[in-house]
Amino acid sequence: SKIVPLGATIKPGDIAIYEFEEKTGTIKIRENYQDLPSDENKLNEMMEETNELFAQLLEIQQKI
């Protein structure tokens, strides 16, 4: 509570996360596991890809 005031928090069961599928135009609610959002989602997939590309760039930089 010293970093984040308890009044600024919400109960996990009070949130819903939706994902928009651009190609099909559909929107679906993301599944939760024990009141936590699933790690399997498009945002995490894209972040993983970006992190991998960045790591490859760092490897190139170290060789120069």
Explained architecture:
With 64 residues, the protein is of the alpha+beta class. Helices cover 34% and strands 19% of the residues. It has 1 helix and 4 strands; from the N terminus they run ββββα. The strands form 2 sheets. Strands 1-2 form a two-stranded antiparallel sheet. A two-stranded antiparallel sheet has the order 3-4. β1 and β2 (26-29) form a beta hairpin. The chain is flat. The chain starts with 17 loop residues before the first strand and ends with a helix.
User: Number of DSSP helices?
Assistant: 1
What's the pLDDT, averaged over the residues? 86
Radius of gyration, in angstroms, nearest whole number: 18 Å
The tally of beta strands, per DSSP, is 4
Give, in spatial order, the strands making up the sheet with the most strands.
Answer: 1-2
Strand content: 15-25%
Tertiary shape: flat
Low-confidence stretches: none
What is the helix fraction of residues, given as a range?
A: 25-40%
Structural class, by secondary structure, is: alpha+beta
Distance between the termini: 47 Å
**Largest sheet, described in full?**
2 strands, antiparallel
Series of secondary-structure elements, N-terminal to C-terminal:
EEEEH
